[in-house]
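re the bet — no i am not wrong, look at it urself. input seq straight from the record:
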Amino acid sequence: MEAKTLDSLEFPKILALIAGFAGSNAAKDAVAKTMPMTDAKLIKDALDEMEELADFINRGGRLPIGGIREMRDIIITLQKGSETLSGEDLLRVRADIEVGNALKKAFFGEAKIRTVEENKRLGLRIKNIPQLASINEAIGNSINDKGEVRDHATPRLASIRRELVQARQEIERRLSDLVNSSTDIYQDRFFTLRGDRYVVPVKAASQSLIQGIVHDQSGSGQTVFMEPLEFLGLNNRLVRLKSEEREEVIRILKALTDQLADSLNELRSLFDTLVALDLLNAKTRFAAKYDANRPIISTDGGLILKNARHPLIHPDCVPVEIEMNKSQACIIITGPNGGGKTVALKIVGINALLLQSGNFILASANSTLPVFQNILADIGESQSIEDHLSTFTSHLQRLKEILTFAQAPTLVLLDEIGTGTDPTEGAALAKGVLKELTRRGVLSLVTSHLEGLKHAAFTTPGFVNAGMEFDYTTFRPTFRFQMGIPGRSNALSIARIFGIPEEVLTDLADCAKGKAGEERNLIAAMEIEHSKAEALRRSLEKREASISLKEVEVDADLARLKEFRRKKRDEMTETYESQIRRKIREFEQLIHLLKDKIARLPAQESQADLAEARKGMQEARNTLTDLENLNLPDVTPQTRSERNLEIGDSVFLGESPYPGILRDLDENREKGVVEFDGKWFHTPISQLRYAGLKKTAETSFTHVGSAPFVRDELDLRGMRVEEALEKCESYLKLAQAQKLGKVFLIHGKGTGALQRAVHEFLKQGPFRKKFRFGRYGEGDLGVTVVVFDPAADAESAEKDDARKNVRASKRPEKRKK
């Protein structure tokens, strides 16, 4: 692709956006150097890798690509073989080896997120990352985190550094004693280093009193820094040890450098793979950020872009939908200035370049693009004073270049073709160029204000008109692209938008009414009708999308409702069975006790008690059998055609397994009113099914919702607030239906959070004036008592008082002192 077209379409700016998602400088440079490809297989491979990575990320995977260190200079140094790498250089190599290992671990470590098989492109690329384990270990053992050679890198280095420490300690101890022995000779009580040798600060006037070598003096000349002769041997030993240390460190670094040089190809492969993965990750993140999708690569040369956008004005870009093929190979876009004609050109061009550089495009997933051998553009002003080129002549020169290189498959983008000269002659020239391009099988997209080109698009095979929509209610462009109808320049309206005085616009208004006025009005009428049709189509699509979304939400809600009802039904059934079995055990224990006491009681009285206990146990067993044999209502939706409903019938609403009472029926409006637990609901009759459940003498309930036994207490301790309140609601309804006098909600004291939630729930419902804390003996503040029958509560209170009095009377009186 030629650089002039890439610059015209602002391709470098798009690459800069992608580079912003890369982590390493090498990957950023690689993005900036990206050039569009013309090999369909290479493009497909690049898209495959992007799709594999996107799928991996969407399923919870993460590519730990951050932390790549620059190695290009290291590789060049190793190639030359004349330099030794520093400790910092070796740390950079080790960091990249660690990144490669982390990538393998992340990609192949967890099966639950490994969605890309090893034999696919991305999997193979990561699998083949060189591990360089021996080099990694050698660097780790020899170089610390600061890039310094470790003491234990070799036994010789460890020995040298131990001697160095001992030598320093000895010389520093002796120097400290020396400077503290006489305060008249020395300027200060300290010692320092000059050229790796220890020296002491001596007063200039006293330097003759010390035998030694002067290494430096202060700026004022009052102090000289001397190495006493008695320390000459110690300093020489120190210098020798330091020299040996440097030699050993260089030897270690040289050995590591040679080891890296031996694995140069693997090292280069490692770095190249990391950079490629960083670039791939940047492209994938760019696609996710800009809502880009993988297009279909066309094999017939056709182009279909749906919901296409431009990255530089995302997300505010008005989408473009455009289709090009052999029958409409040349699209002529007309419309108002500032209406988006040039943007439409660039949207098509930049998405074609994105595809051919191995990127997803900013368009819907079902968009189709061919692989162009050339993309040639003439966009923007290109006149040149130096080259003596006017606007027209510069465009002519560019048209000549395009005609030289344009052969199928090529995409040509021309902005304002035929301008800069007489409109009639310009239109004729433009028509000739476009006919030639169409004859060659080139796809051409051009913008123009020339009336002659609009006419040519109606009559020339392969030519198609298109226009940018103009809102005639607000007299402003909408930036929407419309195929099949030309647009009007609307110079008068645009000039008024920019505030040009009306007296200046008089001639322009007369021109609009004059020559070809009827034709302009016809085109305007066509444009208005087309705009209305497009608005209706968009409204319909939006409505259909909204309906589809609501259908999905309704299905999801229905599924959740079914699951909720199933769980509630199972919980209630389990509770009732547990309560019934408990009652049976209580009766069995009672019968056992009665049998034990039968000898001590009058025969008639004992037999009566025993018969009563057996009767209660048999009733409990019968109830349990009825519950086990109960057939729950079918929740399959049915219509009322099974039976004509009547007011007072027991009915099911929708898929609910619990019946209500039909209170009202409007046959004309197909509406009904159903009562559930005292609440009335208006619903279509088509949603109602005849239940026919009647309470009989043989059983004490007609559906799962009614049960003969409900305990007078509900233990909420250990539950979450939401779970506890849900239990409370269903339990209180059942307890009230069973006509219990009062019930106990056991929430415990704890932090008080559950107790406050229960009280707030009771205040907002029908029990807001029917609850209290437990009394002494009822659980105190750890229990809330809900009272359905005040008489029962008063009776129990009297019994509690009586028991208190009895206990009080049995207590021994305190002895008086």
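see?? Confidence is low (pLDDT under 50) at residues 384-388, 630-642, 694-708. told u. also The chain has 22 helices and 23 strands. so pay up
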